[in-house]
Amino acid sequence: MVDKNEIKGAAKEMGGKVKETAGKATGNERMEAEGKVDQVEGKTQKNYGKVKDAVKDQTHSH
Predict the structure, then answer these.
(1) How far is it, in rounded angstroms, from Cα 3 to Cα 43?
(2) Radius of gyration over every alpha carbon of the chain, rounded to an integer in angstroms
(3) Domain regions of the chain by residue span
(4) Is the CB of residue 36 less than 8 Å from the CB of residue 1?
(5) How far apart are CA 47 and CA 35, in angstroms?
(6) Tens digit of pLDDT for each residue in 9-26?
(7) CB 35 within 8 A of CB 20
(8) What is the pLDDT of residue 6?
(9) Where is this region: Disordered (predicted)?
(10) 33 CB contacts (<8 Å, ≥6 apart)?
């Protein structure tokens, strides 16, 4: 089962990519930087969810 952090993290990462692209297209460096930060936060949250899910799977399989 997919952890909710994986889903939220993936959404934040995707939103960050959109924000970064919009920032590049409009020449808005702040928006571009915020998009990059959102992507890193999203990846971190997604990976946290994967680890949490893997630990849960391991504890339930034993």
Answers:
(1) 14
(2) 15
(3) 4-57
(4) no
(5) 18
(6) 999 999 999 999 999 999
(7) yes
(8) 96
(9) 1-62
(10) 23
According to the model, what pLDDT value does residue 1 have? 76
Work out the number of other CB atoms within 10 angstroms of the CB of residue 46.
Answer: 20
Residue 58 reports pLDDT greater than 80: yes
Query: Please, are residues 3 and 51 in contact by the beta-carbon 8 Å criterion?
Result: no
In whole angstroms, what separates CA 7 from the centre of its chain? 8
Both tokens of 39, joined, read: 């992507």
Query: Quick one: which of 12, 11, 29 has its CA closest to 20?
Result: 29
Which amino acid is present at 3?
Answer: D
Residue-wise pLDDT for 26-52, tens only, equals 999 999 999 999 999 999 999 999 999
Distances in Å between the alpha carbon of 2 and those of 7, 24, 29?
A: 8, 33, 34
